[in-house]
Specification:
CATH class of the largest domain: Mainly Beta
Radius of gyration: 41 Å
Oligomer: single chain
Largest sheet: 6 strands, antiparallel, barrel
Number of domains: 5
CATH topology of the largest domain: conserved putative lor/sdh protein from methanococcus maripaludis s2 fold
Shape: elongated
Order of helices and strands: HHEEEEEEEHHEEEEEEEEEEEEEEEEH
Number of strands: 23
């Protein structure tokens, strides 16, 4: 019996013995029983119950976060861009011939290794049959050459034929073996060409363009289809040579679409061209983060990039609520989330000025860091946490975030 249950029992016992105004036992005896019950309760309290209390799982605190992205100050430049699939390819036949079948059209979804088009197989089947015949003949010639060599070798051992004779038949055997290898290689090539009469999809995707129709003669390498992989999308645009030195891989950008229902999306630089193209502009690519299903390839966009002033050591905009007070002027602490360990690390940061409810952090954080923005006074270094939905506002739309 647990001490709590015994306590309730003792209270009931005392109450029963002193029921109402009519006491069942004399006052002296009742006082003794009450004292005994209290003593028993105290002893059980000190000793504890036989039943062990259940383990209480530690609570994991949920935190609201902000992803550090944009520099705190600089110049915003805008460029016209166009959406493309991150993985795309122009498909063509590796053999020439007349197209017999075009099995898919523009806009069709296809699966990896699906047959998309076929050229006339008949010439290539004949090539395979011819190569197979050559292989059979070469095998027969080799068998005869080996048999002749073995016969001449026996005669040579008995001294009935000359050394020149045995060397000649040995050479004939070696030539027959080479002829078989050559015929086998031709057969392998003919069989490969026959397989290549079928144009197959290299990955799951969508046919974005169709170049030829059925019954058209195509040559090796002539474009037949453009295919774009499902999923990842990127924006391609050109950067003038005057600012290309201030562009780097990993730099965040914003992408605005004409359609209001899509709005503004985040992207990050994935590729910066090393050679200038038209008008001395360098081609660059930025991968879209979590693009919605409404986005299609070849859509036009307006790309905005926030460039730091040259020679300026401006830092990153971080919400003021993410900073805990530090010991010295301009010092503070931010709790940076580690996705691998699901913990936060208390990090010393240096601030310099503020914009609305954002503070300019010049030391301690970098682009891509995830910082806690609420309840930082209740967090500790190494504490395990879980994430709420991340706040996606940044320097480019800081005023909107404050509304």
């Amino acid at each position: 019996m647990c001490w709590l249950e015994l306590s309730m029992y003792c209270h009931k016992l005392v109450a029963h013995l002193s029921f109402g105004k009519k006491q069942i036992l004399p006052t002296m005896q009742l006082s003794s029983i009450s004292s005994l019950a209290i003593a028993m309760m105290a002893a059980l309290t000190l000793a504890g119950c036989d039943e062990e209390p259940p383990d209480i799982a530690p609570q994991i605190r949920a935190i609201k976060t902000y992803t550090v992205t944009e520099v705190a100050s600089g110049q915003t430049r805008k460029f016209s861009g166009q959406v493309y699939a991150t993985d795309s390819s122009t498909l063509s036949f590796h053999v020439s011939g007349t197209v017999k079948e075009m099995l898919v059209s523009e806009g069709d979804r296809v699966e990896e290794d699906q047959v998309l088009a076929v050229v006339d197989k008949q010439p290539y089947k004949l090539d395979v049959e011819s190569a197979e015949a050559e292989v059979q003949k070469a095998r027969s010639d080799l068998a005869n050459a080996r048999q002749e060599y073995e016969r001449q070798e026996e005669l040579y051992k008995k001294g009935w034929v000359s050394t020149a004779r045995i060397e000649r038949v040995q050479t004939q055997r070696d030539v027959a073996e080479s002829q078989l290898d050559f015929a086998t290689s031709k057969l392998n090539l003919a069989e490969r060409d026959l397989r290549l009469t079928e144009l197959r999809a290299p990955f799951d995707g969508t046919i974005s363009r169709k170049y030829v129709e059925a019954f058209v003669e195509v040559s090796t390498g002539q474009p037949v289809y453009d295919i774009e992989a499902v999923g990842a999308l990127e924006v391609r645009f050109d950067i003038p040579e005057t600012i290309i030195s201030r562009i780097s891989v990993g730099m965040p950008v914003t992408v605005k679409f004409p359609r209001k229902e899509i709005g503004i999306l985040r992207a990050r630089m994935t590729e910066v061209g090393s050679t200038a193209g038209k008008a001395n502009a360098f081609p660059v690519k930025a991968g879209l983060e979590d693009p919605p299903a409404e986005i299609r390839s070849r859509m036009t966009t307006e790309v905005s990039i926030l460039l730091a002033h040259e020679g300026d050591d401006s830092g990153f905009l971080v919400p003021l609520s993410a900073i805990a007070p530090g010991d010295g002027p301009g010092q503070g602490y931010a709790f940076i989330y580690d996705p691998e360990t699901q913990t936060v690390k208390k990090t010393l940061v240096m601030g310099r000025g503020a914009i609305d409810n954002f503070v300019n952090i010049v030391e301690g954080v970098k682009a891509g860091d995830i910082v806690a923005v609420a309840g930082v006074t209740f967090l500790s270094d190494g504490q395990r946490v879980k994430l709420m939905q991340q706040q996606r506002s940044s320097a480019l739309d800081a005023p909107a975030a404050m509304q």
